[in-house]
Design brief:
- The protein is 53% helix and 6% strand.
- The chain has 285 residues and is mostly helical.
- The chain has one domain: P1 Nuclease (Orthogonal Bundle).
- The longest helix is centred in the last third of the chain and has 29 residues.
- Bound molecules: 2-acetamido-2-deoxy-beta-D-glucopyranose (5 copies) and zinc ion (ZN).
- The site of one 2-acetamido-2-deoxy-beta-D-glucopyranose has 8 residues, from helix 6.
- Monomer.
- Its EC number is 3.1.30.1.
- It holds the Pfam family S1-P1_nuclease.
- GO terms for molecular function: endonuclease activity; metal ion binding; nucleic acid binding; RNA endonuclease activity; single-stranded DNA endodeoxyribonuclease activity.
């Protein structure tokens, strides 16, 4: 039984791990959703609970990577995880950049956030044309992705996917360093490889260190429930100022890079979680 379990685990890792090519890795999404869950209003908690499938047992974080797992089944959804902006411009414009490789407008992570936000406004109506369970899972995942700096990256290197680096001694691509490696190394070095301890540390900083910024993170003016242009603009700025900065094809990234980029990763995870909660609270009133 024990060895059967480990075999199953190995197979799971082998077949599931390579799927997460674009997007925070599993832990990044888990952290974002976990932070959000702790900040939901009572009405939002009730709506989320009623939309989540039974097996999630009310835990949104457990399904925060669902959108990565359906990329093959829902092939149309794969361009919705990121935005490609023109090389080296370091700006984001919806009309210029939010399209897929065939040029279809709105098909990027910012467009998807608007799309699934609008769908969720049907919650509580008699009928909806949409599957609101899927809308909730997509929105929760994409709010994480848009806060990963290299999800709003340059076109020709596909958000750092074609930039080869060494993460300490291991081969990696720059995109993966930002999806997973920085978070994993942080967990190993400072949190006994425990994702819950890292989540708690970020939550503590949301209150104590970033407390005076939180209102501005949540802010989304006028009648809008979500402000993806703000998130994407911050994203490409962080990509230029921190992710791409000082990196060339073949760079070896070690403590200098790790320790200076770590605060940016923690800060973007915090913003993603705070804003996911703020958006869900606005949507479900
Ligand atoms: C909007 O959501 C629908 C339903 O999931 C999907 O078919 C469509 O591709 C989505 N479009 C965007 C831009 O997110
Ligand atoms: C909505 O989507 C979920 C997840 O894909 C699926 O399990 C469920 O059957 C769908 N509900 C309907 C009514 O189609
Ligand atoms: C980096 O080098 C690899 C291997 O030589 C190459 O395939 C890749 O296109 C290069 N990436 C960039 C962004 O130049
Ligand atoms: C929390 O904030 C402190 C003080 O700025 C910082 O040293 C620490 O790395 C932060 N931890 C996380 C997880 O953000
Ligand atoms: C909220 O955002 C609007 C623009 O979207 C801005 O005018 C306003 O000053 C912001 N308020 C805060 C508290 O940041
Ligand atoms: Zn993703």
């Amino acid at each position: 039984m024990g060895s059967f379990r480990s075999l199953a685990l190995v197979l799971l890792v082998v077949f599931v791990a390579p799927v997460a090519v674009r997007g925070w890795g599993v832990d990044g999404h888990f952290i974002t959703c976990k932070i959000a869950q702790g900040r939901l209003s009572q009405t939002a908690v009730e709506a989320v609970n009623s939309l989540l499938p039974e097996y999630a047992k009310g835990d949104l974080a457990s399904l925060c990577s669902w959108a990565d797992h359906v990329k093959f089944r829902y092939h149309w959804s794969s361009p919705l995880h990121y935005i490609d902006t023109p090389d080296n411009l370091c700006t984001y414009q919806y009309r210029r950049d939010c399209k897929d490789e065939d040029g279809v407008m709105g098909r990027c992570v910012a467009g998807a956030i608007m799309n699934y936000t609008t769908q969720l406004l049907d919650y509580g109506k008699q009928t909806s044309d949409y599957n609101l369970t899927e809308a909730l899972l997509f929105l929760s995942h994409f709010m994480g992705d848009i806060h990963q700096p290299l999800h709003v990256g340059f076109t020709s290197d596909r958000g750092g996917n074609t930039i080869d680096v060494h993460w300490f001694t291991r081969k990696a691509v720059l995109h993966h360093v930002w999806d997973d490696s920085i978070i994993e190394t942080e967990e190993e070095r400072f949190y006994g490889s425990n994702v819950d301890d890292l989540t708690n540390a970020i939550e503590t900083n949301i209150t104590n260190v970033w407390g005076d910024q939180v209102k501005a993170w949540e802010n989304c003016s006028g009648s809008q429930k979500t402000c993806p242009t703000t998130y994407a603009t911050e994203g490409i700025n962080a990509a230029c100022n921190w992710a791409y900065k000082g990196v060339t094809n073949g760079s070896v990234l070690e403590d200098d890079y790790f320790l200076s980029r770590l605060p940016i990763v923690n800060w973007r995870l915090a913003q993603g979680g705070v804003r996911l909660a703020a958006n869900l609270n606005r949507i479900f009133g």
